[in-house]
Amino acid sequence: MKFSPAQSTLAAAALAAGVLLALGAPLAASAHVSAVPSSTAAGSTSVVTFATSHGCEGSPTTSMAFTIPEGIASVSPTITPGWDVSKVAVDLETPIDDGHGNEITTRTGQVVYTAQAPLEDGFRTTFALSVSLPADAAGESIEFPVLQTCEVGANDWSDSTVEGEEEPASPAPFITVTEATGDGHGQGVETTDHEETTDEAATENVASSDDVLARILGVGGLAVGAVGIVLAVTARRKQSA
Questions:
Q1: Rounded distance, CA 149 to CA 151, Å?
Q2: pLDDT per residue over 108-150, tens digit each?
Q3: Which domain holds residue 232?
Q4: What is the pLDDT of residues 55-77, one digit of tens each?
Q5: What does the DSSP 8-state code read for residue 121?
Q6: What's the number of domains the chain is made of?
Q7: Which CATH number covers residue 19?
């Protein structure tokens, strides 16, 4: 039996929407560069893990440059297999005392990871930076702008996210600093072994959130597809009658 043009169009549109939602779920889940901290307490040391799984409109990633906010005076990048890493120093407007009688005149203004072999689009990796959060930043959001350079093109993840407003097209990854704990040192001051454990936990958290969103969108796509099938079957029964 043949469907009427209107019935055929409606069923096809529903099925197409379902397929697009189901296939688009992984893309939506990995749309930005995410940041997961091991600690958010003011004055603490935190390992911030950044994750990405996409290139520049399909082009492989060749480097990731992380801008370090002015309020962070100390940063130690974690070695990532397959990537070379370097720290770019910038001058401090006002020299500071390191607490041991030494004057500090520069700080790390940027950390650059360069791929030994380009990272293909659709493959996920993470980068971890150990940073000292400012002691007076409780309640503030600290952004880490990222310039993702690819074989063709680049993504400049540097737009600020404003609470209550629509998310920008290229948001900078950020963390929100909380109140310091009562021990005078914040929280999250880790040893090397604990940093590795924290990195793994943060990576799992990012992957888990991506997976949950992908599942939700996938189920939505299947539901829309099912509606299309029901419409098609109903239309066929009416034609048979």
A1: 7
A2: 999 999 999 999 999 999 999 999 999 999 999 999 999 999 9
A3: 5-240
A4: 999 999 999 999 999 989 889 99
A5: T
A6: 1
A7: 2.60.40.2230
